Amino acid sequence: MVHTLEWKAHLLCEQGKGIQTCTKVKIDDLAILKKLHREFEAYKKSLLPKVPPFPNESISSHTSTEATSMRLAISSDNVKKRKSNNTIADTFNMKSRDHLDSEIARMFYKGGLPFNLARNPYYVSSYTYAVKSNLSSYKPPRYTKLRTTLLNKETENVDRLLQPVKATWKTNGVTIVSDGWSDPRRRPLINLMIASETGPMFMKAIDCSGEIKDKDFIATLLSEVIDEIGDQNVVQIITDNASNCKAAGELVEGRYHHIYWTPCVVHTFNLAMKSICAAKNVLNNVEVYDECHWITEVHVDALFIKNCIMNHSMRLSMFNKLSPLKLLCIVDTFFASIVCMLKRLKLLKTSLQSMVISENWSLYKDDRREQASLVREKILDEA
C-alpha cells in the first residue's frame, strides 16, 4: 500500500521522494494542488497550541530534550482532542441540516404540496436569503398576513412590473380576448385578457354564477373593460363563435364604431373539423356526408376500443405493460378532439395489436368475453 507521504509527493511532482511523479497532472492543476497543500499545512500549524517554554530549559541538553518531548506530547494530545471535537459533520452542521430537511419535507407531506414546488425559484431563494441574513428571531408569515397584507403588496409589485407594457397601449393599440371556462368548483368564469405587441396580460376573471350569459350580459362586461383601459386604445375584441358571443360583438361594434369583433380562429377551425369528422346525413350536408362519413365510423370504433380498455382494470393493466404511451381521454369540447384521439391510436397501433394477440388476452375470462372478442377483431382489422 502506498504511504500518504508518497501519494503527496506523487501528485505534487516532488523529486527525490522515492516515488515517480505523476505525468497526468497538468501545470494549472499542479499550481492549484500546491496552493491547497500550503493552505492545509498552514491550517495544521494554526491548530497546534503555543506551549510556553519550561523554566531552566537551557540548563542542559538533556533537560532541553525532555522539555521538547513533553511539548510535542502535549501538542499531539491537544491536536487529537481538537480533531475529535471538530469532525466534518460538526463543521458543516450536518445534524442541523438534516433536521431542517426533515421539517421542510414534513411541510410538503402534511400540506399535500406538489413536489414541483421545490423547483420554484422563490422556494430556493427564500431559504437562501434567510440563511444569509441570519434572522435568528424571524417567524414565517401567518395565514392572515399571506392573504391580506402580503397579497396586496405583491399585487402592487405586479402592477409596477406591468407599467412598461401598459405604456405601449396608446401607441400600438390592444386586443381584448374573452373566453369562458369552469373552475374545479364548477363556477362559470369569463376570462378577460389583453393582447398587444409587447405580449399578453391577464386582466381579470368574472364569476358568472346565477347570471344568464346572453348577448347583453357579455357585451356589458366587454364594454366595462374597454372603458377601463380606454376605448381609444382598443382595436378589436376576440371571442368564440357561439351565437351569444357573436351577438355581443355586434353590440360592441355598435357602441364603439372603431372597434371590430373578430371570431376565434382556433374555435373556427374546431367547428370546421367537427363538420368534417362528425358528418350528419341531412339534406343540406349530403356531399360532406358522402365524402367524410367514414371518419365518423372510425371515430366510433376508436371510442369503443378506448372505453373498453380504460374502463376495465385488467385490460388497462395489460395495455400499460406493453405501451410506454397512454391512451388519451379527450373531452368533446377540446379543439380537434377526434383528430387528437385518432393520432394517438395510430401511435399505439403496434402495442394494441400485441395486447390482443397475447396469451393473457386469449386466457381472458369475465362476463364480457364478447366485448373483448370484438375489441380484438376491430384492432386486427385495422392492420
From TrEMBL:
Q: What is the top-level taxon of the source organism?
A: Eukaryota
The record ties this protein, via Pfam families, to:
DUF659
Q: What SUPFAM superfamilies does its record include?
A: Ribonuclease H-like
Task: Specify the DUF659 domain's residue ranges.
Answer: 141-292
Signal peptide feature range: none
Check the record and name the InterPro entries matching this protein. Answer: DUF659, RNaseH-like_sf
Protein name according to UniProt? DUF659 domain-containing protein
Organism field: Chenopodium quinoa
